[in-house]
Design goal:
30% of the residues lie in helices and 17% in strands. By secondary structure, it is an alpha/beta fold. The strands form two sheets. A seven-stranded parallel beta sheet has the order 1-10-9-6-2-3-5, covered by helices on one side. Strands 4-8-7 form a three-stranded antiparallel beta sheet, covered by helices on one side. β9, α7 (211-219) and β10 form a beta-alpha-beta unit. The termini are close together.
Amino acid sequence: MALPGTPSPPRIERFSSPEAACRSLALEIAALVREKPDARLGLPTGRTPIPLYRELARLHREEGLSFARACSFNLDEYLGLAADDARSFRAFMREHFFAQVDFEPRNVHFPNVAGEPEREARAYAQELRAAGGLDLALLGLGRNGHVGFNEPGSGRDSSARVVELADQTRADAAVAFGGLANVPVRAITLGLAEILEARAIRMLAFGAAKSEVVRRMLLEPASQACPASLLRGHADLALLLDEGASTGLPR
């Protein structure tokens, strides 16, 4: 379904289940990596991409898909957690993806949260630019419209930086941290500027709880109030939705 009124209308793909959407996207990623073994991938965390990582691991295990020359740049990382903290995004990615495939450790990139945060955020943006930018940015979609940790108020030209996490973002993470009081209040994130420089952007959104933000992203005027809406002019943007997430869109 093409949506009118944008310079490059996003491609909307509807699937019967999150697993079906993730299988489709995994095949696209596999084709990219086979064509360009040194592809640079922007990777998200959270529950949404877990079926995708599971399917990519299956393709590696059963069909020989290799990530040995690929590079990954994670979108964000919490500040205030040790690198080996089980709640960190490093730990999440290791558990759900990197331990299951053949990424070389030197090709796996995260923001460094051990140094001075603002300096490390700038260094992370420079590291990505030096690598040539992202071939494919994989995104989830926060209920308040954030992508990465680009919270409401983020502009299209926002670069990698330290951010204050929105109340809703922290509330959504509270279960994983054993309560809201334990959720970090700051993080380093790649900005919308780095995401928009990716050659292709693919976003996953599943469940009825995401239907309202999907509708806002695609049908309301683009604005900083819903940072995801600022991606709409990208030349190669596709949203992969299940039935629940797409209920607010016209057929």
